[in-house]
């Protein structure tokens, strides 16, 4: 009997999968562990296997098109087997689904405004001569004469005499540049437009669509507040250089921040929490997510149990996850489960910024660049390498004092990295 291969749920926020590539054609033999297609989700591109043997009889959509979660991707069965009943059954389910819920009232469709029938326009009144207009103006004869000589339109002149009468001093003090077109004045040269207006539209990717939805929900539902602290990184710079002389993998400043955050979260578990609607969940494990920019948007690979790992272990794991994220090869366990997130734009030459909290976390840390900065120490100005950190907090979970104490501990670890090695 033919088997329906449905679109699997490949991430916790997935609603639809887009076929990035078909690896099997209709009529091809398929084994249960063959990859029949690659599916683009809101997080990554995943491989889909049918878990049944047979012949590919039907493909639900072509490359580049989407299939809702649990929708029919393909049908596999015996060669020549009739699968039309399966499609009819699916179509019947689709038609019945809306009946389960009360139909939602649709907003009336906007109709294009009908063009009104042309109406007869009244004949324009005869143009008034300038002489007639000037006659009705309240202006002294001398003011009129001076205005005529200077090419000034008296309609543009404000009178200062009795009842607004225009007198000589009004004409003398009149500034032509502040007025409109004047009699006898040269017309302004008209230039042809340079260049051509235009734009291009592109459809939203699954990733960009979910990013927009989740971050909008976070920004407008979680009351954000922000705490910024400056950290002296001189000792960290020297420590990183010494560590990389013996480490099997290169340790980055971001790896130092991950480790320092994990150590600080161990001391301040309230920051390692989540708002769950009617209760607050304090996580006992520490999973640090790091925002990575990809072509379609952002994805957050997660270093799990970061507080229990050495700097070299964090560096190796983070490097592997970031490479997989950029190549869209992350698997769901690698980008889910974060309890705290770091967004680092220091390598992009950003001084400091604020980040939007990444649900379900209660906080996210924004990391700026390391910059030589004049600092007052012992009544002297010295140059220190300063890095600015900004903690975005969900005020429903974390109060200002809690976030501040977390930043103080984080700063202590970064300014003295030896504390992270013992």
Describe the structure.
It is a single chain. The protein is of the alpha+beta class and 422 residues long. It is 26% helix and 23% strand. The protein has nine helices and 18 strands. It has a six-stranded mixed beta sheet. β4 and β5 form a beta hairpin. The longest helix has 16 residues, at 206-221. The two termini are 62 Å apart.
Could you name the key traits of this structure?
single chain; 422 residues; alpha+beta; OB fold (Dihydrolipoamide Acetyltransferase, E2P); Chloramphenicol Acetyltransferase; 6-stranded mixed β-sheet; 4-stranded antiparallel β-sheet; 9 helices; 23% strand
Q: Rg from C-alpha positions?
A: 35 Å
Which CATH architecture of the domain at 221-420 would you pick?
Answer: 2-Layer Sandwich
The major sheet is characterized as: 6 strands, mixed
Under CATH, the homologous superfamily of the domain at 221-420 reads Chloramphenicol acetyltransferase-like domain
How many angstroms does the end-to-end distance come to?
A: 62 Å
Broad shape: flat
Look at the helices and sheets and give the structural class. alpha+beta
What's the order of the H and E elements? EEEEEEEEHHHHHEHHEEEEEEHEEEH
- Helix count from the secondary structure assignment: 9
Task: Summarize model confidence as the mean pLDDT.
Answer: 84
CATH class of the domain at 221-420: Alpha Beta
Strand-residue proportion: 15-25%
* Number of DSSP E strands: 18
